[in-house]
Amino acid sequence: MIGVYGGTFDPIHYGHLRTALEVKEAVSLDELRFIPCREPPHRDAPEASPEQRLEMLRAALQDAEPGFCIDTRELERPGPSYMVDTLASIRQEIRAAPLCLIVGLDAFAGLDRWHRWRELLDLAHLLVMQRPGYSPELPDPLQAMLPERVVSTADALRESPAGRIHFITLTLLDISATRIRSAVAQGLSPRYLTPDPVLHLIHSLNLYRCG
User: Fold this and answer.
1) What percent of the chain has pLDDT over 90?
2) Which of 18, 20, 25, 99 has an alpha carbon within 20 to 30 A of 173's alpha carbon?
3) Model-level pTM?
């Protein structure tokens, strides 16, 4: 069973890595792919280039958890990085193996604004990361699909290639790429927010500094 964890990773940090590990263990993923996007369709362009973000991701994962790997297909594909296209491409390669898209609860709450969003569940399961005590209001189209899609156990995900939704409660670290970029811009140290090899690259590539 393969997990897909997409993002700009501008830069990758311990919040990403710890979340990925907890999700991998929670549902016993055989493989978890970090997929850096080239051109995010729903947010501002990343500050670091695709090549720089990939270099930082590789540095962060050089001694990482077994089963963690990097998938560069979105960086290699021109235009906006639509997840539906990414999942379709992976599905062609893995055939009927279970595929899981990892999303946060806020992203899930806005899923109906994603490009061809209804096709996502034809291609993958959704693993929705939620914080204890946090429950945003979901739009009607998502509310309507929950009764027939939600499964309470990870084992149910292995019974089909796609189409199910599983909520995972995590204690998410209060770390963000925005916070790291802001610290660097202000001349402050982001150490202990991101792995030291990533921090070294941020300094050596002169990333996120003002002027």
Assistant:
1) 91
2) 99
3) 0.95
